[in-house]
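Q: What changes when NAP is included in the input?
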Amino acid sequence: MGALAGRVALVTGGSRGIGRGIALRLGRDGALVGVHYGSSKEAAEEVVAEVRAEGGEAFAVRAELGVPGDAAELFGGVDEELRLRGLEPRLDVLVNNAATSGSARIDEVTPELVDRICAVNVKSLVLVVQEALRRMGEGGRVVNISSAVTRMAYPESVVYSMSKGAMDTMTLALAKELGPRGITVNAVSPGFIATDMNAKLRTTEEGAARLASMSAFGRIGQPADIADVVAFLASGDSRWVTGQLIDGSGGSGL
Ligand code: NAP
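A: The predicted holo structure follows.
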């Protein structure tokens, strides 16, 4: 029996990158995993197939985040998948991983970029958490995928960095709020992880080497490096850990 046997988990943005790695790991640990996606249906279905191939169970659920009704659509889909399996609406583990980036220094920022990043990374985050908490009981887990940019200046993406700062602040506030319900809330802050989000920065050997050199280990991180930290935070073993912003940057900036 895995550490998450009998638990229901939802990974937003589980179709690609870090979210994919997290969905695979939670599935391996025995959770029934909701693999959320926005537009990458095929990729999400591949993740579901991979979880099943490893003996786990998962389903794909679509919702565009950052638009009106996003959280309701997401949880409508999750509830329906549970109903098909004879389960009442519930959620034990929520991983808030989906986010949009957007490289722009302060003089390049547009009102549209601010609106877009805030809609997906802040507004939708709050509304998704709100819906999740209506279904979460004692022993629940909320894991936020933040970023090292909240503690290491990254002026290249100032609004994105600010949005992750909001996520960190929410992590603290909710940890205090939800402690009495036996729910933990923590954040993991990756440094550079090899995903589509930073593919452009890695197209040249020089670019890839620069990203690798930021970590104390001299390599760029992989989704599994973050998924393994999330697995601990999603498990019962993390019951006494809450309100923490856990660095997952491979020692970047030491
Ligand atoms: P990614 O490869 O770009 O994947 C993003 C995922 O989020 C996809 O599954 C995508 O779904 C989903 N998504 C994004 N915007 C969405 C929207 N508006 N509606 C619905 N789904 C949406 O990203 P990643 O690099 O794995 O990043 C995952 C998380 O880690 C993010 O929170 C990011 O800020 C954080 N992070 C990443 C790094 C890094 O170096 N990669 C570093 C620090 C923090 P679809 O493709 O289906 O639309």
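Observations recorded in class: Residues 13, 15-19, 37-40, 64-66, 97-100, 120, 145, 147, 190, 192-193, 195-198 surround NAP (CB under 6 Å).
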